[in-house]
Amino acid sequence: MQNHPMIAALVAAALAYLLGSLPFAVLVSRVMGLADPRSYGSRNPGATNVLRSGSKTAAALTLLLDGGKGWLALGLGWRAAQAGWLPMDAVAWLGLAVVAGHLWPLFLGFRGGKGVATAAGVLLGLNPWLGLATVATWLIVAGFFRYSSLAALAAAVFAPCYAWFGQGLAWNLPRMAMPALLLICLLVIWRHRGNIAKLLRGEESRIGARAAPGSGR
Questions:
Q1: Of 67, 104, 144, 171, which is least surrounded by CB within 10 A?
Q2: Nearest Cα to 114, choosing from 63, 178, 40, 190?
């Protein structure tokens, strides 16, 4: 691998994509005997929609596992780079690959979630303080307004700002972290375009709102 850095980077990105493709919202719901999250609410296979099933445990497990995908991809990437198996500049792009896997999962016919939890895991993997600052932004906005989508959009906007202004002061991110992070945040915002329209029309569901199977809300 040391003599073929491009091949190593492509293999690592493919593995990160496959990791991101694991549909934990569907798997957790199936194991816990709940309806498929693609059949109710926003039909989004993510933690917020799983919460609409009424099971906080299932939602929490989905959140942790989806976030864990991003964190694990970066953690393994750092270890591979330190061992000389992977170029250091390629590590940040594994974050983009794992988020892409969640958005377009191989195992769900390329129709996935919105990538918020996985992106948060990537940020925590890049730098714990950067990740915590972004998660805190989500929590503050969600706590005040009770809209998961609005909190996600705010976090996606602020994350690159935190990364930029904190570089060299609070953290030292690798050279390619900023472009990878920008693309991840743009993908998260793009994936919420429908939610933006609902927010503007005043039709967006608040956190914890129950939805009957097949409601399509």
A1: 144
A2: 190
